[in-house]
Write a sequence for this structure.
Protein backbone atom coordinates (compact mmCIF):
# COMPACT_ATOMS: atom_id res chain seq x y z
CA UNK A 1 0.00 0.00 0.00
CA UNK A 2 2.79 2.39 0.93
CA UNK A 3 4.63 1.65 -2.32
CA UNK A 4 1.46 2.30 -4.32
CA UNK A 5 0.87 5.60 -2.53
CA UNK A 6 4.46 6.69 -3.05
CA UNK A 7 4.24 5.91 -6.77
CA UNK A 8 0.94 7.80 -7.03
CA UNK A 9 2.42 10.90 -5.35
CA UNK A 10 5.47 10.73 -7.65
CA UNK A 11 3.26 10.44 -10.74
CA UNK A 12 1.03 13.36 -9.72
CA UNK A 13 4.02 15.60 -8.94
CA UNK A 14 5.65 14.75 -12.26
CA UNK A 15 2.45 15.49 -14.16
CA UNK A 16 1.82 18.76 -12.29
CA UNK A 17 5.26 20.27 -12.06
CA UNK A 18 7.23 18.90 -15.01
CA UNK A 19 10.06 16.44 -15.37
CA UNK A 20 12.58 15.34 -12.80
CA UNK A 21 15.75 17.21 -13.73
CA UNK A 22 19.24 15.67 -13.66
CA UNK A 23 21.16 16.22 -10.45
CA UNK A 24 22.69 19.70 -10.46
CA UNK A 25 19.96 21.34 -12.56
CA UNK A 26 17.03 23.53 -11.45
CA UNK A 27 14.11 25.45 -12.86
CA UNK A 28 15.24 29.07 -12.50
CA UNK A 29 11.78 30.12 -11.31
CA UNK A 30 12.26 27.89 -8.25
CA UNK A 31 15.25 30.03 -7.29
CA UNK A 32 14.15 33.49 -8.52
CA UNK A 33 10.66 34.15 -9.86
CA UNK A 34 11.43 37.78 -10.76
CA UNK A 35 13.76 37.06 -13.69
CA UNK A 36 11.83 37.52 -16.92
CA UNK A 37 11.89 35.05 -19.80
CA UNK A 38 11.02 34.78 -23.47
CA UNK A 39 12.15 31.40 -24.70
CA UNK A 40 12.61 32.25 -28.38
CA UNK A 41 13.14 28.68 -29.57
CA UNK A 42 9.72 27.73 -28.24
CA UNK A 43 8.15 30.15 -30.75
CA UNK A 44 8.38 31.16 -34.40
CA UNK A 45 10.38 34.27 -33.45
CA UNK A 46 13.87 32.91 -34.12
CA UNK A 47 16.33 32.56 -37.00
CA UNK A 48 14.65 29.39 -38.31
CA UNK A 49 11.09 30.71 -38.03
CA UNK A 50 9.51 27.74 -36.25
CA UNK A 51 9.65 26.06 -32.81
CA UNK A 52 12.83 24.09 -32.22
CA UNK A 53 13.07 20.42 -31.25
CA UNK A 54 13.22 19.85 -27.49
CA UNK A 55 11.47 23.09 -26.47
CA UNK A 56 8.06 22.21 -25.03
CA UNK A 57 7.49 24.77 -22.27
CA UNK A 58 8.40 28.40 -21.55
CA UNK A 59 10.64 27.66 -18.59
CA UNK A 60 14.31 28.32 -17.89
CA UNK A 61 16.46 25.36 -16.88
CA UNK A 62 20.04 25.94 -15.72
CA UNK A 63 22.62 24.42 -13.43
CA UNK A 64 22.18 25.30 -9.77
CA UNK A 65 25.43 27.25 -9.74
CA UNK A 66 24.26 29.37 -12.69
CA UNK A 67 20.87 30.00 -11.09
CA UNK A 68 22.38 31.37 -7.89
CA UNK A 69 24.81 33.56 -9.84
CA UNK A 70 21.93 34.94 -11.93
CA UNK A 71 19.98 35.88 -8.79
CA UNK A 72 22.91 38.08 -7.73
CA UNK A 73 22.87 39.85 -11.08
CA UNK A 74 19.11 40.30 -10.81
CA UNK A 75 19.31 41.85 -7.34
CA UNK A 76 21.85 44.40 -8.57
CA UNK A 77 19.64 45.31 -11.55
CA UNK A 78 16.47 45.60 -9.48
CA UNK A 79 18.07 48.31 -7.38
CA UNK A 80 18.26 50.39 -10.57
CA UNK A 81 14.74 49.55 -11.78
CA UNK A 82 15.86 46.86 -14.24
CA UNK A 83 15.47 43.12 -14.67
CA UNK A 84 17.16 40.33 -16.55
CA UNK A 85 15.28 38.77 -19.44
CA UNK A 86 16.43 35.36 -20.65
CA UNK A 87 16.04 34.22 -24.26
CA UNK A 88 17.76 30.86 -23.92
CA UNK A 89 19.63 28.85 -21.30
CA UNK A 90 19.99 25.07 -21.19
CA UNK A 91 19.56 23.82 -24.77
CA UNK A 92 19.10 20.09 -25.46
CA UNK A 93 21.38 18.47 -28.03
CA UNK A 94 18.31 17.65 -30.13
CA UNK A 95 17.79 21.39 -30.62
CA UNK A 96 21.39 21.80 -31.76
CA UNK A 97 20.84 18.93 -34.20
CA UNK A 98 17.76 20.80 -35.50
CA UNK A 99 19.93 23.86 -36.19
CA UNK A 100 22.46 21.72 -38.07
CA UNK A 101 19.79 20.06 -40.25
CA UNK A 102 18.26 23.45 -41.05
CA UNK A 103 21.63 24.99 -41.98
CA UNK A 104 22.16 22.30 -44.61
CA UNK A 105 18.91 23.17 -46.41
CA UNK A 106 20.21 26.20 -48.29
CA UNK A 107 16.90 27.27 -49.85
CA UNK A 108 15.15 27.58 -46.45
CA UNK A 109 15.76 31.29 -45.85
CA UNK A 110 12.45 32.33 -44.30
CA UNK A 111 14.07 34.52 -41.63
CA UNK A 112 17.14 35.72 -43.53
CA UNK A 113 16.05 39.36 -43.71
CA UNK A 114 15.59 39.62 -39.95
CA UNK A 115 18.46 37.48 -38.65
CA UNK A 116 21.24 37.08 -41.24
CA UNK A 117 20.71 39.61 -44.08
CA UNK A 118 24.42 39.98 -44.87
CA UNK A 119 25.57 36.40 -44.37
CA UNK A 120 25.11 33.71 -47.07
CA UNK A 121 23.42 30.71 -45.51
CA UNK A 122 26.07 28.49 -47.06
CA UNK A 123 28.67 30.15 -44.79
CA UNK A 124 26.89 29.78 -41.43
CA UNK A 125 29.08 26.82 -40.43
CA UNK A 126 32.29 28.39 -41.71
CA UNK A 127 31.69 31.62 -39.83
CA UNK A 128 30.82 29.82 -36.61
CA UNK A 129 27.14 30.75 -36.32
CA UNK A 130 26.06 27.10 -36.42
CA UNK A 131 27.97 24.19 -34.87
CA UNK A 132 27.34 20.56 -33.99
CA UNK A 133 27.89 21.25 -30.26
CA UNK A 134 26.79 24.13 -28.07
CA UNK A 135 27.92 25.25 -24.63
CA UNK A 136 24.23 25.74 -23.86
CA UNK A 137 23.81 21.97 -23.73
CA UNK A 138 26.12 21.87 -20.69
CA UNK A 139 23.56 23.92 -18.74
CA UNK A 140 25.62 26.92 -17.64
CA UNK A 141 25.36 29.23 -20.66
CA UNK A 142 22.64 31.87 -20.94
CA UNK A 143 21.47 34.31 -23.60
CA UNK A 144 19.91 37.39 -22.06
CA UNK A 145 19.30 41.12 -22.00
CA UNK A 146 18.08 43.84 -19.65
CA UNK A 147 14.53 45.13 -19.33
CA UNK A 148 13.24 48.39 -17.83
CA UNK A 149 10.78 47.15 -15.19
CA UNK A 150 8.60 50.27 -15.37
CA UNK A 151 8.10 50.26 -19.15
CA UNK A 152 8.58 46.54 -19.78
CA UNK A 153 10.85 47.38 -22.71
CA UNK A 154 14.25 45.88 -23.43
CA UNK A 155 17.20 48.25 -23.33
CA UNK A 156 18.49 49.17 -26.77
CA UNK A 157 21.52 46.96 -27.38
CA UNK A 158 22.02 47.93 -31.02
CA UNK A 159 21.11 44.55 -32.53
CA UNK A 160 18.48 41.90 -31.86
CA UNK A 161 19.19 38.66 -30.02
CA UNK A 162 20.59 36.01 -32.38
CA UNK A 163 21.43 38.48 -35.15
CA UNK A 164 24.23 36.98 -37.26
CA UNK A 165 26.68 39.78 -37.96
CA UNK A 166 29.40 42.10 -36.73
CA UNK A 167 26.79 44.36 -35.17
CA UNK A 168 26.26 41.70 -32.49
CA UNK A 169 29.93 41.67 -31.49
CA UNK A 170 30.76 43.15 -28.09
CA UNK A 171 31.52 46.76 -29.03
CA UNK A 172 31.42 47.30 -32.81
CA UNK A 173 31.98 50.77 -34.22
CA UNK A 174 28.49 51.10 -35.71
CA UNK A 175 26.46 51.33 -32.48
CA UNK A 176 25.56 54.46 -30.51
CA UNK A 177 27.04 55.57 -27.17
CA UNK A 178 23.75 54.65 -25.47
CA UNK A 179 23.83 51.16 -26.96
CA UNK A 180 27.46 50.79 -25.84
CA UNK A 181 26.47 51.87 -22.33
CA UNK A 182 23.70 49.27 -22.17
CA UNK A 183 25.98 46.48 -23.37
CA UNK A 184 28.61 47.48 -20.84
CA UNK A 185 26.05 47.43 -18.04
CA UNK A 186 25.08 43.85 -18.90
CA UNK A 187 28.64 42.67 -19.47
CA UNK A 188 30.05 44.24 -16.31
CA UNK A 189 27.34 42.82 -14.05
CA UNK A 190 27.57 39.35 -15.55
CA UNK A 191 31.38 39.37 -15.36
CA UNK A 192 31.27 40.57 -11.76
CA UNK A 193 29.10 37.58 -10.91
CA UNK A 194 31.38 34.94 -12.42
CA UNK A 195 30.08 34.75 -16.00
CA UNK A 196 32.45 34.78 -18.95
CA UNK A 197 31.28 36.86 -21.96
CA UNK A 198 31.54 35.81 -25.59
CA UNK A 199 33.05 38.55 -27.76
CA UNK A 200 30.92 37.84 -30.86
CA UNK A 201 27.50 37.89 -29.11
CA UNK A 202 26.69 40.62 -26.61
CA UNK A 203 23.91 38.46 -25.08
CA UNK A 204 25.92 35.26 -24.50
CA UNK A 205 27.56 34.35 -21.16
CA UNK A 206 28.94 31.15 -19.64
CA UNK A 207 29.50 30.51 -15.94
CA UNK A 208 33.17 30.25 -15.07
CA UNK A 209 34.09 26.86 -13.56
CA UNK A 210 30.83 25.41 -14.88
CA UNK A 211 29.90 22.10 -13.20
CA UNK A 212 29.57 20.04 -16.42
CA UNK A 213 32.34 21.33 -18.72
CA UNK A 214 32.44 18.21 -20.91
CA UNK A 215 28.87 16.88 -20.72
CA UNK A 216 26.27 17.70 -23.36
CA UNK A 217 22.75 16.92 -22.14
CA UNK A 218 19.73 16.05 -24.25
CA UNK A 219 16.69 16.02 -21.96
CA UNK A 220 13.81 18.21 -23.24
CA UNK A 221 12.65 21.52 -21.80
CA UNK A 222 9.28 20.80 -20.22
Amino acid sequence: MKKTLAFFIFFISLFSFGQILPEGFVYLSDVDKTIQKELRYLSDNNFIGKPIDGYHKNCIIVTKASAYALTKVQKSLQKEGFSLKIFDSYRPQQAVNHFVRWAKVLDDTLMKKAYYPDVPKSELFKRGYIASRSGHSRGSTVDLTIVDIKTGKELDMGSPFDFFGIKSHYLPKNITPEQQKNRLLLRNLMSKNNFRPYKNEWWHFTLRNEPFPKTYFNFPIE
Q: What stands out?
A: The radius of gyration is 18 Å. The first strand starts at residue 25 and ends at 27. Helices lie at 2-17, 64-78, 93-103, 112-115, 177-192.
